[in-house]
Amino acid sequence: MNKVSLTPQLHTSEHILGQILDKMCNGFKTTSLEIRDDDVRYDFKVDTMPENVTKELLEAKVNAIISKNIPVEISEFSRQEAEEIGIDLSIVPRSVEVIRIVDIKGVNKQACAGEHVKNTSDISKFEIVKFVKKGSNSYQIVSKINSM
Ligand SMILES: [Zn+2]
Fold first, then answer.
1. Which domains, and CATH codes, for the chain?
2. pLDDT tens-digit profile of 47-63?
3. What's the gap in Å between 10 CA and the centre of ligand 1?
4. Is-above-0.85 flag for pTM?
5. Is the dihedral of CA 8, 10, 13, 17 positive or negative?
6. Distance in Å, CA 13 to ligand 1 centroid
């Protein structure tokens, strides 16, 4: 039996999670993102982690956005065009000339070459398995999709 790939759901939900963290935490910066078969390991840095940012709060915020049935659009831009509309290209290798932008309408727009859903309604429940502090300013979140 073929197992349905969870990658598009995992990828899209990480964009939403990153956006929420960026809004809530000063100096938020992704350090690494590893999409595995069943879960995602997300490492990031912040200047300070506000006390109200908990696993439960982040899950609730991501799921609230998912439940709004938001369309996800993919478009391609030149490097210069992408920079002009304010896309962060710091992790995109210089050799990449066509920038693929994933736009979760009204939520988050970022450069990404991965697979994504077409609408957030295609994502089942987002769940955080682990949220830990790894160093003075670094944290790790492991999350998965609970398809029930
Ligand atoms: Zn992505």
1. 7-146 (3.30.980.10)
2. 999 999 999 999 999 99
3. 8
4. yes
5. negative
6. 9
